[in-house]
Amino acid sequence: MTDDAEFREAYRELLTARTPRDRRACPSPESLLAVVERQGAEATRLATLDHVMSCADCRADFQLLRTAAVSAEQAARDEAPALRLV
Asked: Is residue 58 a contact partner of residue 52, using CB atoms and an 8 Å limit?
């Protein structure tokens, strides 16, 4: 039976194999932002999202942009004046 160290090494090798060695094929930060903001052509956004779901580096970048966008929306709501009913 294999021990934990062997499983960890096999998992590390699997993750390394999935990580792109060259990010030139990755979408630009602007393309990732377009997906987050739902801007541009839908086909382009879908192709970008397809790449994001298969690339750990892009997925991390995308999640960071999504978190920033949600935070900005929340901050804008918090700063908006409350409506008073008379």
From this structure: yes
Q: State both tokens at 27.
A: 């979408």
CB distance 54 to 26 below 8 Å: no
What is the C-alpha to C-alpha distance for residues 32 and 26, in angstroms, rounded to an integer? 10
Note whether 64 and 54 are within 8 A (CB). no
What's the helix, strand, coil split of the chain in %, to 5? 75, 0, 25
pTM: 0.66
pLDDT bucket at 84, cuts 50 / 70 / 90: low
User: How many angstroms separate the CA atoms of 60 and 29, rounded?
Assistant: 12
Q: In terms of Cα–Cα distance, which of 23, 14, 52 is closest to 36?
A: 52
Please give the angle made by the CA atoms of 57, 58 and 60, to the nearest 5 degrees: 70
Contact in structure between 68 and 31 (CB atoms under 8 Å): no
